[in-house]
Amino acid sequence: MGRQFAVIGLGQFGMSVVKTLVAEGCDVIAIDIIDEKVKDASEITAHAVVIDATEEKALRMMGISNVDVAIICIGQNVQDSILVALILKEMGINTVIAKALNELHGKVLEKIGVSKVVYPEIDMGVRIARGLISSKIVEQIEISSKHSIVEVLAPISFVGKTLRKIDARVKYGINIIAIKRQYAKVDDQGNIIQKDIFDITPAAEDIIAKDDMLLVFGNNDNIIKLRSLK
After folding, report:
1. Per-residue DSSP letter, 136
2. Can you list the domains of the chain with their CATH numbers?
3. Within 13 Å, how many C-alpha atoms sit on residue 114's CB side?
4. How far is it, in rounded angstroms, from Cα 203 to Cα 7?
5. Of 9, 71, 55, whose CA–CA distance to 34 is shortest?
6. pLDDT for the residue numbered 215
7. Contact between 81 and 67 (Cβ < 8 Å)
């Protein structure tokens, strides 16, 4: 018996994945929350279902934990993409492949254990331009015309303070949704290796350290104000 695949998100990219796998004789479960997309997929594979993939219980009920490979093809909803990846990894699926909008999205997916990240829609020009505009903002995902997720160097004024004391939502109109920190590790040969720790569920009592990178969500105007913080 061949390997079984699950394709989550049936946009143009997801449907092309389904068609290719089915053409190669693979057993494919096609999943989307939109009825019309699932209907189109049902003409290609016998296993096409309408499910909210962010609901772990629904995924378990359909037996997705038994698939060999899960491919996340969710379009513009970065939060759903990351949440689904977390659920699939917690369910024990060894191989999870995910579509990313850009490198920041991809970094988050990699940090939570996604096996492979693909970038079918990355816009290199926009990413480079944003890097030139601000030395503090490393990467930016545009969620809408007014809101973005950015990876930004922690301001000096945040260092040594807990997230509770910083109170970023009230004071700055932003949400700190993850913290990335480097630490030095000595390998078996005595070499010092820099490793990244990525906390995607920071607690209120977590303390910001110098050189921490923060994953921040907020209004674009408030994000711009981060540049002026010291």
Report:
1. S
2. 4-118 (3.40.50.720), 126-228 (3.30.70.1450)
3. 25
4. 33
5. 9
6. 85
7. no
